[in-house]
Design a protein that fits this description.
- This protein has 5 helices and 5 strands; from the N terminus they run H-H-H-H-H-E-E-E-E-E.
- It has about 180 residues and is an alpha+beta fold.
- It has 2 domains: about 100 residues; about 60 residues, OB fold (Dihydrolipoamide Acetyltransferase, E2P) (Beta Barrel).
- The chain has a 5-stranded mixed β-barrel.
- Helix 1 runs antiparallel to helix 2 and helix 2 packs antiparallel against helix 3.
- The protein is rod-shaped.
């Protein structure tokens, strides 16, 4: 359901409030305001599923639903049905909140924060210089510089980045960032 559909549904629910309040339209309901609150609460729960608001609208929907159910307790609606619908609504809201919280930002996996501390094998050495080489890291080829001689296949840890050059140390050596 898109945002336009949610807005249309909410407007229809709002405009239908006067129809529910008319006793001639709903003769089987003892108090049409209770039914209106239940319908509006369900509409808010549907809107909660479509809008990114972390439970604010859903909580209001549950409150309206429960208040409408309390108003209708004088009617012939069974109490277990009201309690069951309220619990199902609350479980739906909790489910939606958990799903929304899982989409929160995670740890940085790119840029300097993602590079520093990464471990990768040396893929190629520069001809005639065992201190310079190349690694494949985060889908890119990087030129590396080490304080100790490197060997192809040796696993190294990134300790610093200077432009397009990564400073590395062997994984068995203690990481020591170089000074500027």
């Amino acid at each position: 359901m898109n945002i336009r559909g949610c807005v249309v549904a909410c407007l229809l629910l709002t405009l239908s409030g006067s129809a529910f309040a008319a006793d001639t339209v709903m003769p089987f309901v003892a108090d049409p305001i209770g039914l209106w609150l239940i319908v509006f609460g369900i509409g808010f729960l549907i809107a909660e599923a479509a809008l990114p608001n972390y439970g604010v609208i859903g909580l209001g929907g549950i409150v309206m639903f429960v208040i409408g159910a309390v108003i209708l307790t004088n009617a012939d609606m069974p109490v277990p049905l009201m309690i069951g619908l309220g619990l199902i609504s609350a479980l739906l809201l909790v489910f939606l909140l958990v799903r929304a919280l899982r989409t929160r930002p995670r740890a940085t996996v790119s840029g300097d924060a993602g590079l520093i501390g990464s471990v990768t094998p040396v893929t190629l050495l520069q001809r005639g210089n065992a201190y310079n080489g190349w690694v494949h890291l985060q889908g890119e080829q990087w030129q590396v510089l080490s304080a100790t001689p490197l060997q192809p296949g040796q696993r190294v840890r990134v300790v610093a980045r200077k432009g397009l050059l990564l400073e590395v140390a062997a994984t068995d050596a203690a990481p020591t960032p170089s000074g500027d």
